[in-house]
């Protein structure tokens, strides 16, 4: 873990190390003179960053950048932002630096440039410096650490409203307690301010423009950057795209809708000889919905697991690759059996990062919540959130209302969002047709808001583009600006 830095209003409390978890150079590291570029002093990350994730990575260099906490008060409080770079193999190249945004929120990103060398994006490292930045509040950048407290146990037979209220209350207590540690800092954790930090990084690099490749939550920072600094973008590609507006009830409904319920029901009907549910698709939907309602009224405890209405919705609203497994679990229950054991319920973990698997340093939960909630347009009270969930369930009885995102529960801060706007710089998006983390419809909305080309990847795998054969389209885009609105075979 990076060294915790507890921030208070005014001067941050630190021990005998630099802010943001970057250690003072050891004697061995100090023997090699640091490299100075403008405001940035570069040192090998493995020698200065506490618990650097990849000790074999000797190429990536790290530095710290001081920026205003509040850009409307440039002479006020300053914070430290951790940045990194992997120098281009071609030292004579004049290509702009390529910013690589590996996801988030709440996650370390400065270790990502070396990871580019292990993907189909590797040819870009020949002529581009690959650079990255830990967004304010996470990774090795200045942050507030605030641990969760144990939650009260919810009875296994609790109904859906009782379960949702318990989750809401636990999250509400966390939000109020942790935002109060340093509300001035928490209020400034937004994608737009991360974009402003990125532009300060661009200036410190002495680069007139940047290229940008971002996946998942880093696409929100990319969209904000292009909206604020369009003329400073050379080319930008965003894969698995966040929506231009954070309305969490709408976003939850989008996630619920990624499951192909109609396809699953049609598949069951076609396999009537095996499953014996009949060929009447409407009748199958009625049976599934009735089972969901029954298990919400009276959940069953099976070993250490609970079989409730969400258990049914998880199996009905899933991707085609899971249909056979889900049917094998669901059909016996539809026929009145109670299994002796259950596989783990396939619900999404709380504060699921919109990016790669959680890397070293873990998830800074306060930054995660603030980034998603400060500028959110949706209600944060339980009654409004519950009513919205029930409306989604009424609209889609089999799977609607099964996804309850509670991270903004009673969020105490409100910041006007920075609108995503159309620009003139080349913008290419890619969306994955059936994925459930950043649904395809989010890329469609971003395309409409920002003006862009949209490549449709035919898979359900989050941010998989850099590992696919059609990564050649990314290379062509950064080479000569070639865009596409076509399709791409995905993970098979």
TrEMBL record:
InterPro entries registered for this protein in UniProt: AB_hydrolase_1 (IPR000073), AB_hydrolase_fold (IPR029058), Asp/Glu_racemase_AS_1 (IPR018187), Pept_S33_TAP-like_C (IPR013595), Serine_prot/Carboxylest_S33 (IPR051601)
Signal sequence residues: 1-29
Family: Belongs to the peptidase S33 family.
Protein name: Alpha/beta fold hydrolase
Species of the source: Streptomyces albus
PANTHER family: 2-SUCCINYL-6-HYDROXY-2,4-CYCLOHEXADIENE-1-CARBOXYLATE SYNTHASE, TRIPEPTIDYL AMINOPEPTIDASE
Keywords of the record: Hydrolase, Signal
Transmembrane as UniProt keyword: no
Domain Peptidase S33 tripeptidyl aminopeptidase-like C-terminal residue range list: 406-484
GO MF terms, alphabetically ordered: hydrolase activity
Every AB hydrolase-1 domain range: 120-287
Residue ranges, annotated region (Disordered): 141-170
């Amino acid at each position: 873990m990076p060294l915790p830095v507890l921030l208070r209003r005014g001067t941050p409390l630190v021990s005998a190390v630099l802010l943001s978890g970057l250690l003072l150079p050891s004697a061995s590291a100090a023997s090699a003179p640091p490299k100075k570029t403008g405001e940035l002093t570069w040192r090998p990350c493995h020698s200065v960053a506490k618990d650097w994730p990849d000790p074999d990575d000797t190429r990536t260099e790290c530095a710290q950048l001081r920026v205003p906490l509040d850009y409307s008060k440039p002479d006020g409080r300053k914070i430290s932002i951790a940045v990194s770079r992997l120098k281009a193999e071609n030292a004579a190249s004049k290509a702009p630096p390529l910013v690589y945004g590996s996801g988030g929120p709440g996650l370390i990103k400065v270790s990502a440039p070396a990871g580019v060398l292990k993907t189909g994006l590797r040819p870009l490292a020949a002529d581009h410096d690959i650079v990255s930045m830990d967004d304010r509040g996470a990774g090795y950048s200045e942050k507030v650490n605030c641990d969760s407290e144990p939650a009260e146990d919810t009875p296994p037979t609790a109904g859906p409203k009782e379960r949702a209220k318990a989750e809401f209350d636990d999250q509400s207590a966390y939000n109020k307690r942790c935002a109060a540690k340093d509300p001035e800092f928490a209020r400034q954790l937004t994608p737009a301010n991360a974009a402003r930090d990125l532009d300060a990084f661009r200036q410190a690099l002495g680069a007139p423009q940047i290229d940008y490749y971002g996946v998942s939550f880093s696409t929100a920072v990319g969209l904000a950057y292009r909206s604020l600094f369009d003329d400073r973008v050379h080319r930008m590609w965003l894969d698995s795209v966040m929506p231009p507006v954070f309305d969490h009830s709408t976003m939850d409904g989008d996630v619920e809708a990624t499951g192909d319920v109609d396809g699953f029901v049609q598949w069951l009907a076609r396999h009537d000889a095996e499953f014996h549910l009949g060929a009447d698709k409407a009748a199958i939907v009625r049976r599934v919905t009735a089972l969901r309602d029954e298990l919400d009224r009276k959940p069953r405890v099976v070993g250490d697991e609970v079989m409730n209405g969400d258990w049914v919705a998880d199996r009905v609203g899933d991707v085609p690759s899971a249909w056979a497994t889900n049917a094998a679990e669901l059909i016996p229950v539809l026929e009145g059996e109670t299994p002796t054991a259950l596989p783990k319920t396939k619900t999404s973990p709380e504060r699921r990062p919109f990016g790669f698997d959680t890397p070293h340093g873990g998830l800074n939960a306060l930054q995660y919540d603030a980034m998603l909630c400060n500028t959110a347009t949706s209600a944060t009270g339980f009654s409004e959130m519950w009513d919205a969930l029930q409306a989604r369930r009424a609209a889609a009885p089999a799977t609607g209302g099964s996804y309850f995102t509670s991270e903004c529960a009673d969020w105490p801060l409100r910041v006007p969002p920075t609108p995503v706007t159309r620009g003139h710089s080349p913008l290419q998006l890619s969306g994955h047709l059936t994925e459930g983390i950043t649904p395809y419809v989010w890329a469609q909305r971003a395309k409409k808001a920002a003006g862009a080309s949209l490549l449709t990847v035919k898979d359900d795998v989050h941010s998989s583009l850099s590992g696919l054969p059609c990564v050649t389209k990314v290379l062509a885009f950064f080479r000569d600006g070639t865009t596409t609105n076509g399709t791409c075979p995905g993970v098979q």
